[in-house]
User: Which sequence fits this backbone?
């Protein structure tokens, strides 16, 4: 059995779909972190079968809407003095701004670079978002 030390103060990103943890690890640039990070791949899970886990031995700022776009089933545990003080259950955000980009050449955001790319959640089951300006459909996994 793999044994990883407890975190005194930090964050545990849990219930990541197996294989998706590397996206989060890279997005958070944890390979350059000056603190301890544990990245567990394909851990056993009663609920999911297999999952990835990231343990960060520091408190960092995380953009939860982007994390929710990567994998809405994630649970983020905030650890203080070795105790979970907060559990944040992620979900797909209702509205995202400048995370997804519209690919429609007739959209105003395509030619006017100063206009924010705003997408509204259309179908949570499919993870589809609709451009607020032109109704172009993008999916949660399409972010930059």
Assistant:
């Amino acid at each position: 059995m793999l044994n990883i030390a407890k975190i005194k103060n930090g964050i545990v990103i849990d219930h990541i779909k197996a294989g998706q943890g590397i996206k989060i690890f890279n997005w958070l640039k944890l390979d350059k972190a000056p603190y301890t990070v544990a990245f567990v791949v394909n851990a056993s899970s009663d609920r999911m079968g297999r999952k990835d886990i990231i343990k960060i031995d520091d408190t960092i700022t995380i953009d939860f809407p982007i994390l929710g776009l990567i994998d809405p089933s994630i649970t983020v545990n905030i650890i203080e003095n070795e105790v979970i003080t907060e559990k944040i259950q992620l979900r797909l955000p209702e509205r995202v701004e400048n995370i997804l980009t519209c690919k429609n050449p007739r959209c105003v955001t395509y030619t006017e670079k100063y206009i924010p790319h705003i997408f509204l959640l259309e179908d949570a089951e499919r993870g589809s978002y609709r451009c607020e300006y032109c109704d172009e459909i993008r999916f949660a996994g399409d972010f930059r």
Strands lie at 10-17, 37-45, 49-56, 75-80, 83-89, 95-97, 118-123, 128-131, 137-139. The chain has a mean pLDDT of 89. The radius of gyration is 17 Å.
